[in-house]
Design goal:
Elements (H helix, E strand, L loop, with lengths): L16 H8 L6 H9 L3 H16 L2 E5 L1 E4 L28 H6 L7 E4 L9 H14 L4 E4 L2 H10 L4 H11 L1 E3 L10 H7 L6 H13 L4 E7 L5 H18 L2 E8 L16 H14 L5 E2 L3 H4 L1 H7 L6 E4 L6 H4 L10 H10 L3 E5 L5 E4 L4 E4 L6 H4 L8 E4 L2 H9 L5 E5 H6 L4 E10 L6 E5 L10 E5 L5 H12 L5 E5 L11 E5 H10 L6 E4 H9 L4 E8 L4 H19 L2 H4 L1 H6 L4 H9 L1 E4 L2 H17 L4
Parallel strand pairs: 1-9, 1-10, 2-3, 3-4, 4-5, 6-7, 7-8, 12-13, 12-14, 17-18, 17-19
Antiparallel strand pairs: 10-11, 14-21, 15-21, 15-22, 16-19, 16-20
Helix pairs in contact: 2-10, 3-11, 6-7, 6-9, 7-9, 11-13, 19-21, 19-26
This protein binds iron/sulfur cluster.
């Protein structure tokens, strides 16, 4: 199947066809579209649409994290109607964990600790700060994802600190990301019925968008399957989509199936149906076009439904989640700890690549063979749009991460950033394909407050995704302009740019910012153009390479597949990237013009440009 093209869907419900046309044309879905899908019985077609969108976003990857959930206390000042977890101080089932108790639950192999719990009436602010600080001190490789918007708002009121200050202090001691809980359903009607003591949509969004502005990415949830209507579910998604347009700080959306338990809201055995669960996941994928990930939260869905959900738009399985309590106290039927091997099996059985990740969704480990890395930017579309996968699986991964995975022999082949190729030349065989500029590129951009000479001694923020562009920037600064600056890595996703004098962005983000601007940075430099005007040579950003140790048949097959894919794509440059381009705000014409600005074959001039750059870089030899 053509990787970026849409598969044929035989719609039983013809009302879905205009929705599918919108998706294919990169148009936003409306409230009516969302509700139409919820009311439709054509589950398979909805799932296929969502799967197609998921494929375009994350290829064959399904993410999981080795994580531990900690609920430091079940004592809570609130009494939400749907909550079977919380209790009151002095009750026999009440518990409180000390920092030692928390540390004793953690092990060095986990990558994420997920902390949420009751709103304790007596704990001091210092206790929460110490909790995060001590975790980071004792387990430096464990990232802390902690505190829902409800808890942050509670800290803000109880300790009389502005929300921003609460978040800043937590960030300072090691908070990396925040969970999405407490959103429930953004409907005042439902809030008044079920959780009238809890924060409403306004406060939830205030906490999350403030976190994003401070460089703390967050998740978002939807609690469905109780008294909410389909309209309320869709409005919930649309409000999140709007906020994501503004900040870009949401990582994943997690539909949470309501567990009736003893809540009395619904009879105990009235779980959501698997049909409703799958439909909600698929519709989330379709409505939330700007969310990178959709999670199938197996603890509440059951393993079986979560596994099917991986072909209904979900690309995240959460993780090994030790000690989950809230869902289980309300009667969730999944086992308490789903072992890593089981997760891997579920993902493989769904025909996907199990990818162990960190809190920011950077891949750490891959558990399958025949993986081809894909730089997930518009400029790589010509290689993948007609790629026939056969035995291969496609993993979208940022250039710098791909180099790291390849150094651990986890990737068979891919479009490697030039620096990653240089570093691993002894193990990689160069193929005759690349991404090289003709003169300008528009997707490796320096957004600056100063001209080149004004950057002397200044700090430049560089995206964590880049491996080669940052080296090109160093060469330009030092050899072309004789300027010395310092560099600071920013993680991918949300960032507070205000502390930097210039910011280096690459890929789709750079393209979007080039068109719409990066507030506060008036000057914009295209690094490829700078290079071309200086050296009169193209610049090679990425090259195709494969593992030298791969069997000859595999190498031959990959070469043939790539050649065929590229030929078909080059004959259709005006259409292949249109949808991808629209998602980042480019018109089809702008996309075509952009793609035409690259050479995709590694010829004599490109090889000469590689040699010249290598020599200059060796002379600069600055480490970041
Ligand atoms: S849902 Fe959260 S805030 Fe509400 S009672 Fe339960 S623990 Fe407390």
């Amino acid at each position: 199947m053509n990787m970026n093209s849409v598969s044929d869907i035989s719609f039983r419900d013809k009302q879905l066809i205009p929705i599918w046309n919108k998706v294919q044309n990169g148009e936003r879905l409306s409230l009516v579209d969302g509700v139409t899908m919820f009311r439709s019985n054509d589950l398979i077609s909805i799932g296929k649409m969502a799967h197609e969108v998921q494929q375009q976003k994350s290829g064959d990857a399904v993410y999981f994290v080795l994580n531990q959930k900690i609920e430091p206390t079940n004592i809570c000042v609130l009494s939400c109607k749907f909550c079977d977890f919380a209790t009151k101080l002095g009750r026999p089932n009440a518990y409180e964990m000390t920092i030692e108790d928390i540390l004793s639950k953690l092990t060095p192999e986990i990558h994420e600790v997920h902390i949420t719990g009751g709103l304790h009436p007596d704990w001091e602010w210092k206790y929460y700060l110490d909790m995060v600080r001590e975790i980071k001190k004792n387990f430096p490789d464990v990232d802390v994802k902690a505190f829902t918007a409800v808890e942050i708002d509670f800290f803000h009121k109880k300790f009389k600190l502005p929300i921003e200050e609460v978040l800043l202090q937590l960030k300072d001691v090691g908070l990396r990301t925040m969970p999405g809980g407490g959103a429930e359903v953004f409907s005042e009607r439902v809030r008044k019925l079920l959780f009238n003591q809890k924060i409403g949509a306004k406060t939830w969004f205030e906490v999350h968008t403030t976190a994003h502005k401070l460089g703390i990415p967050t998740n978002a949830t939807l609690l469905y399957g109780h008294v909410e209507t389909y309209e309320e579910r869709v409005v919930h998604m649309m409000k999140l989509r709007e906020a994501q347009d503004e900040t870009g700080g949401f990582l994943t959306f997690i539909p949470l199936a309501f567990q009736p338990g003893d809540t009395t809201i619904k009879p105990k055995d009235e779980f959501t149906s698997a049909i409703d669960d799958l439909k909600t996941i698929a519709i989330s994928r379709l409505m939330l076009d700007n969310f990178p990930h959709i999670k199938a939260y197996w603890v509440m869905l059951t393993e079986e439904v979560a596994s099917i959900a991986l072909n209904f738009g979900a690309d995240d399985m959460d993780g090994t989640v030790g000690g989950e309590k809230i869902a289980h106290d309300a009667g969730a039927v999944s086992p308490m700890t789903l072992a890593k091997d089981q997760i891997i099996k579920i993902i493989r059985d769904a025909g996907k690549i199990p990818v162990e990740r960190d809190v920011y969704y950077n891949p750490i480990n891959i558990y399958t063979d025949n993986v081809i890395g894909k730089i997930p930017y518009l400029n790589s579309v010509p290689f993948y749009s007609h790629f026939e996968k056969r035995q291969f699986r496609i993993l979208p991964v940022a250039p710098r991460r791909m180099g790291k995975l390849s150094s651990k022999e986890l990737i068979d082949a891919g479009l490697f950033s030039l620096m990653s190729y240089f570093e691993q030349e002894t193990n990689l065989e160069l193929m005759n394909y690349c991404i090289a500029t003709r003169d300008q590129v528009k997707s490796v951009m320096l957004f600056s407050k100063e001209g080149w000479n004004g950057l002397e001694g200044k700090t430049i923020g560089i995206t964590d995704d880049t491996a080669t562009s940052v080296r090109l920037l160093q060469v330009l600064l030092k050899k072309k302009y004789g300027v010395k600056s310092t560099f600071e890595r920013m993680h991918s996703g949300v960032n507070d740019h205000s502390n930097f004098d210039a910011v280096l962005l690459i890929g789709d983000e750079a393209l979007r910012r080039n068109k719409y601007g990066l507030p506060g940075f008036e000057l914009v430099f295209d690094l490829a153009r700078e290079w071309y005007e200086w050296q009169k040579l193209p610049f090679v950003f990425a090259v195709w390479a494969l593992k030298k140790s791969s069997p000859v048949e595999k190498k031959t097959e990959l070469r043939q597949l790539l050649q065929s894919s590229l030929e078909k794509s080059e004959a259709a440059l005006e259409t292949i990237g249109a949808l991808h381009g629209m998602r980042i705000g480019l018109t089809p014409n702008e996309t075509k013009e952009y793609l035409e600005g690259f050479s995709y074959r590694l010829g004599e001039r490109e090889r000469e440009a590689m040699d010249v750059f290598r020599k200059l870089f060796d002379e600069v030899a600055v480490s970041v």
